[in-house]
Design brief:
This is Alpha/beta hydrolase. Keywords: Hydrolase. By secondary structure, the chain is of the alpha/beta class. The protein has a single domain, classed as Alpha/Beta hydrolase fold, catalytic domain (Rossmann fold), CATH 3.40.50.1820. It is 38% helix and 17% strand. It is built from ten helices and nine strands. The longest helix is centred in the last third of the chain and has 16 residues. The protein is globular, with a radius of gyration of 17 Å.
Length: 287
């Protein structure tokens, strides 16, 4: 069921909140909306191939205790219409238009992986729109190894098929005992929603987003020094998809940014350390 309005029931949890839709310049975008109505809303931008049900409910619910949280599907992904863009710039343009269509003049952004690319581009293209920025498991345009994401990912996807495990077990988490436990807990959380689940990405949309990621990795570096808002950067210390050194580079290049690196953690470090990440993110947003 999709509801095309902005009604909200206080106390809703991400696993229960309804999927909504809004028409933005002729394209219907799917989103979920929860949390208190006061203050600056936080918009979540997710990873390659992700739909609404790939947002970690522990992180969403934790943040929504104190902030209005809007989780969105990119164009051509999940419940959103249209064709998936092949550039990060186009995804950022879509997100800006969607934010305006929802009636927001100022937002905070949390971008994970591909979502972090999009969030950076939004902050650079519409600086007056963004109050605070959280970049997780991500890297800058032209960052080391970003254009090699498919080379790194496809063997781990095959491994997932052969071992009958979700590929995110290997893509997002380390192979240590801690990593395996965290992967199992995370994947279990993603199944908490029992009804009104989002549609998975089509192979075409998945490949078009891959083109956008590779183009970002080959793009000329952006002038991140012009980002003048508070920024929090977080990652695991062993991210193989977007190598951790990219997070360190982001923090170095963005003036005054904060950096958190989680030990024995991979690309999904914020999922593994959700109980530490949520308070850190709330403190950052409310500072």
């Amino acid at each position: 069921m999709t509801i095309a309005d902005n009604h909200f029931e206080l106390g809703s949890h991400y696993a229960k909140v309804p999927t909504r839709s809004i028409n933005v310049k002729g394209t219907v975008f799917a989103y979920r909306d929860l949390g208190p109505r006061s203050g600056v809303p936080l918009v979540l931008l997710n990873h390659w191939g992700a739909v609404l049900d790939n947002f970690d409910p522990r992180i969403v619910d934790g943040l929504a205790r104190r902030h209005r949280v809007i989780a969105i599907d990119y164009r051509g992904i999940g419940g959103s219409g249209g064709t998936a863009p092949v550039t990060v710039e186009a995804m950022a343009g879509d997100a800006i238009a969607l934010i305006h269509a929802l009636g927001f003049e100022k937002v905070d952004l949390l971008g994970f992986s591909l979502g972090g690319f999009v969030a950076q581009d939004i902050a650079l293209k519409a600086p007056d729109l963004v109050r605070r920025l959280i970049l997780t498991g991500t890297g800058p345009a032209g960052g080391k190894g970003i254009d090699e994401v498919w080379t790194v990912s496809w063997p781990l996807m095959i491994k997932g098929l052969l071992t009958l495990r979700d590929p995110k077990t290997y893509l997002f988490f380390t192979s240590t005992a801690n990593g395996r436990r965290a992967a199992g807990a995370f994947l279990k959380r993603l199944k908490e929603r029992k009804s009104d689940r989002d549609k998975g990405p089509t192979p075409r949309a998945f490949l078009r987003q891959l083109k956008a990621i590779k183009a970002w990795g080959r793009q000329a570096p952006q002038h991140l020094g012009s980002i003048g808002i508070p920024v929090l950067v977080a990652n695991g210390d062993n991210d193989t998809m977007v190598p951790t050194e990219n997070s360190i580079d982001l923090a170095r290049r963005i003036p005054g940014s904060q950096l958190v690196i989680y030990e024995d953690a991979g690309h999904g470090g914020i999922f593994q350390y959700h109980s530490e990440f949520v308070p850190k993110a709330l403190s950052f947003l409310n500072d």
